[in-house]
Amino acid sequence: MEKVYRFKSIFQSIQGEGILMGTWCWFLRFAGCNMVPKCNFCDVDWQLSKQDLIMTKEEIMTYLENNDDYNTKWLILTGGEPLLFLDDDLVDLLKTKYSISIETNGTIPLGSLIDKIDHIVMSPKVLPSKVKLEKCHTLKILYPFPLETGLINQQMDPVQWKNFPSDYKFVQPLDIPTIPIKDMTKMAITKVAQLGGDWRISVQLHKFLGIE
Fold first, then answer.
1. Domains of the chain as residue ranges with CATH
2. Where are the beta strands (DSSP E) in the chain?
3. pLDDT in tens for each of the 212 residues of the chain?
4. Torsion of CA 12, 17, 23, 27, to 10 degrees
């Protein structure tokens, strides 16, 4: 029986974060995550449901080709945690037409995929000693990091990640309903100024624009 993949949604939008900010992309949001219990700040509904899209790799490719009016170059594989499900067969097929970016929490190694993914983004939800990801192109630290996720209950600081192998380092404001995103962004900008060096701000442009 052919393998199937489960998604919460597949859609097109601009990438609002990191080095690809402003780029028109496909987003493939996998269902399921290994942060259990769910991180208390998570803004994604990754839990399995009857409404999930269940597709073979050929069906995924056909859907993308039949619904793309803009000659989209980039695919963003996100979740949940996409490395729970991603494999060489799917990546090899997608790469015949697209460049691939993956967004991961860093708890699963890339293994054989490490040289196939064009842009690896890690937004860690565990401390550096618990990370299994071998490297990333973009390191994205949420700030101020909350006191509780699915796996840890202590504060995380960008300084802890200064030596992790990455090409770009970003501080991204945490999005919580009780504080306006603009205020959180100002806090993150202050942190970037304090860090100096190669750290940058990731402003979550899509949330300022009110798009998915």
1. 5-209 (3.20.20.70)
2. 5-14, 24-30, 53-55, 74-78, 99-104, 119-122, 138-143, 168-173, 199-201
3. 899 999 999 999 999 999 999 999 999 999 999 987 777 777 777 878 889 999 999 999 999 999 998 999 999 999 999 999 999 999 999 999 999 999 999 999 999 999 999 999 999 988 898 999 999 999 999 988 765 444 445 567 899 998 999 999 999 988 877 888 888 899 999 999 999 989 999 987 777 777 66
4. -20
* CB-CB contact of 94 with 68 (8 Å): no
Quick one: tokens of 4?
């199937």
Rounded to a whole number of angstroms, the distance between the first and last alpha carbons of the chain is 34
- In angstroms, the CA 116 to CA 100 distance is 8
- Cα 159 to Cα 44: distance, rounded to the nearest angstrom: 26
